[in-house]
Every structure is written in C-alpha cells, then in structure tokens.
Amino acid sequence: MKEYEYLIVGAGLYGAVFAHQACQRGQRCLVIDKRPHLGGNIYCEQIEGINVHKYGAHIFHTSNRRVWDYVNSIVEFNRYTNSPIANYRGRQFNLPFNMNTFYQMWGVRTPEEARAKIEEQRSEARRQMQAGGVTEPRNLEEQALLLIGRDIYETLIKGYTEKQWGRPCTELPAFIIKRLPVRFVYDNNYFNDCYQGIPIGGYNRLIDGLLNGVETLTNTDFFANRAHWESVADKILFTGKIDEFYDYRYGKLEYRTVRFEQETLPIPNYQGNAVMNFTEAEVPYTRIIEHKHFEKFGDEVYQTPCTVISREYSTEWAEGMEPYYPVNNERNNALYQQYRALADCEEHVLFGGRLAEYRYYDMAPIVERVLSLF
C-alpha cells in the first residue's frame, strides 16, 4: 500500500479544493508545487498592510449558492463589486457597456437614444460588409462592429484587445467576441452573478483553510524527480501543463502571459478604483490594478498612507514564464485533443484546471467542477 491516496501536483485553487474534499473523506493527500508558496495564481503578497494580487486581479463571482456557501465556510468574503473603468487618451468610461458608457461616449440620456445610436453604427457596418460581398464576420473586428458599432469598438475594444492578444483584431477569430455585455441601464457592476467578493484578509486565507491539515511541499518540481513522485501515491491529480506531462510528444501548446510592473506609491489613493483599463494602443500596458480597493472601501482607503499598484503587460509566453491564457485557436485546440486522448486512457492520473484542460477558467467554475467530482 502506498503512502498517499493522492499526489496533487499544483497548489492552486483546483488542487487545494480537491485536497480539501479528499481529506474530508479520509483520503491522505500530498500537495506539491514548484513555486515557493501555495495558492498558485491567487497567491497574495502583503505589502504595507495591503494584500497584493501577485499574479493579477482575482475577483470571485458566482450564482451557484452551493459554491458561494462552500468558500464562505472556509473564509468570509467581503462585498467587493467589480466596476472597472476604461481610460482612453485621458477620457474615462464605465464598464461594462451601459447607459453611463453611452452618456460618456455620445451624451445620450435615454435607452432609446442609445439604442438608436448603436443601431445606426451597426447598420453602417452591415452596409460596408455587404458592399464587399461579406455575409458573415470573418474576424474579431467585423464581429465587434456588427455588435456595437465603430465608436465603442475603436475607443474601448480595438487597442485593448490587440495589446492583450498581440495581434491585429483583423487577424483574431470572430468567436472571441461573439457576445458583448451591453446594458441599457445605469449599472456599472461588471458581473451579473448573485454573489461576488474577495476573501476578507486575502486569498491566502482561503488556500490556508482549504489545505489545513494537508501535507504540502513547496519549491518541489514534479518533473525534477518524476519517477519518485509517481511512486508515492495510488493516484495523481495533475494541474500543470498537459503537454509537459507527456513530454511535448505532439508539440507545444501556446499561451499568452502577463508581466507585472509593481510600484508602491507614497499616497493613499492613486486612481480611486481597483481596475482601470487603458484602451489606446499607445499605452503599452493593458491595465493598472490598485490592490487596496479590493478590500478597503470609502474612508478605509485612507487608513494606510501608501498604496500599491501593478501595471499589466500582455505578451507571448516563452519557456521560463508563467503560462496564463490558452490560445484556443484551431491549431492549439486540435493539438490539445491529441493530448486529451492520451489523458483519457490514464487509469491512475486525473487532469484538472486551466493548464491541464487547456481552457480559461474563472475561480467559481473550478470550485464547482471539483465539488462535482466528489
């Protein structure tokens, strides 16, 4: 009999919830992670009393009451509401696209006026496509113009999207932007979910609670001593890159990654909001995160005399970088299916999470997916 029922490779949210559920059922788990800390991409570093989202902003949101109750049974969540702002050449617009945005863009005050303005621009886009013999949008740009019109596309979508993906919108597939949140009400709440918030005290408290009583090892690379780690448990839950697990047998999957430029400023309030997107192409970063706004509200912001901001730069992934976003184009999806076929034949290895399943996940669906396994 082996020492553990499960070896869990990766101490991110998927691995932590899996370990918590398995251990509640009396199964002994060992969690290993090559990073020097637990928590994966939701890890927070405390600086000057501020919980800094080290690997980018993470906002928990869900309409699944079971998932919300589950995470709140580990640590209580606060009332943070995601209401990002877009900055275009010094002009600021509310997101998602709503009546505030349309007023800021055109000065319209009623839903009827906003609908008429958008339909006027959508009709013009349709006429131009039909004149060119195009019946269906061939790329992201044409899709966006048909959905929202030229003003919002060029001001709030084009530059940001091209920075994010590193490619012109005319070279990006239309499906990326099949749906745009457009609201004809004055509502800056980005998510439609019933519940959203941030763990009080930061995400480390959530991970620590999930892994309470579970054996963990950091600075531990599964691939550096693979034969040993495969021998210690009856089964493996693998949350890393699926192509790496199979030694890139069919080739490497592609990712986008993010570089962070972090700065501590000697002022209590830099931009007045947690998330500000910069949508013109000339600004090299996609957004600035001011971390204290995730947990401090109103006058609480001024309880600390400084603030921490992170500028985010989207770039192509290369070896040695953290892989963030799968590039789900035809080539990569077909390659992933080859690896998925290998994974489906495994009897003692489970694969889970955004890297192992080569798909983007929000946090709540990860929790829901793991809970469904048990």
Question: Which keywords apply here?
Answer:
alpha/beta, seven-stranded mixed β-sheet, 374 residues, globular, five-stranded parallel β-sheet, 11 helices
What portion of residues is helical?
25-40%
Alpha-carbon distance between the two ends: 23 Å
Strand order of the largest sheet: 7-6-12-13-14-11-15
Low-pLDDT parts are none
Number of strands: 16
Series of secondary-structure elements, N-terminal to C-terminal: EHEEEEHEEHHHHEHEHEHEEEEEHEH
Structural class of the helices, strands and pairings? Answer: alpha/beta
Mean pLDDT: 96
Strand fraction? 15-25%
- H/I helix tally: 11
Q: Judging from the principal axes of the Cα atoms, what is the shape?
A: globular
Radius of gyration: 22 Å
Largest sheet: 7 strands, mixed
In brief:
The protein has 374 residues and is α/β, with parallel strands linked by helices. The chain has eleven helices and 16 strands.
Explain what this protein looks like in three dimensions:
By secondary structure, this protein is of the alpha/beta class. Helices cover 32% and strands 20% of the residues. The chain is built from eleven helices and 16 strands. A seven-stranded mixed beta sheet has the order 7-6-12-13-14-11-15. It has a five-stranded parallel beta sheet with strand order 9-2-1-10-16, with helices on one face. It starts with a strand and ends with a helix. The mean pLDDT is 96.
